[in-house]
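FAQ

Q: What does a record look like?
A: Structure on top, sequence underneath. For example:
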């Protein structure tokens, strides 16, 4: 069984994330979505909320088994924990590649048997970043082009905004 790991903070999960998840699911038998606890980022949504959002958003994916798995250890250790031999990473721009290139080098030094596969973001989704989505939502902007209706509602609720 081919097991892939797609890690991230997913604060919140965006249409860009979902695009990568759907495409990655076609490459493996089981896709584990690793939700990083990452207290340093100070997420808007707590871990349970992020896990729940991902479970809801991925419920309709049937091409592979999709499992949501929180983690707070090294990515390579998370890969070992879930039996993943492939780490999936999404790329939006050249700046993403530079950071990811360094991460691949470090992960390969820790365990060269775990491969990293990069999926380019769909052209319509390249500008989407969770950080920007949160900022747009905080300032009352419409985020419906960037997140699902359910995530949009959760953002509005979290920020104490009325749905309109």
């Amino acid at each position: 069984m081919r097991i892939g790991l797609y890690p991230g903070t997913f604060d919140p999960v965006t249409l860009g994330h979902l695009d990568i998840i759907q495409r990655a699911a076609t490459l493996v038998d089981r896709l584990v979505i690793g939700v990083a606890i990452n207290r340093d980022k100070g997420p808007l949504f707590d871990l349970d909320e992020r896990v729940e959002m991902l479970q809801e958003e991925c419920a309709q994916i049937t091409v592979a088994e999709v499992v949501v798995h929180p983690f707070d250890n090294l990515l390579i250790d998370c890969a070992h924990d879930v039996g993943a031999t492939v780490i999936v990473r999404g790329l939006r721009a050249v700046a993403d590649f530079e950071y990811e290139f360094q991460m691949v080098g470090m992960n390969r030094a820790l365990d060269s048997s775990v491969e990293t596969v990069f999926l380019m973001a769909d052209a319509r989704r390249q500008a989407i970043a969770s950080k920007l989505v949160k900022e747009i939502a905080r300032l009352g902007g419409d985020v419906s082009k960037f997140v699902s209706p359910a995530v949009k509602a959760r953002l509005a609720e979290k920020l104490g905004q009325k749905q309109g």
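Q: Is there anything notable about this one?
A: The chain has one domain: 3-123.
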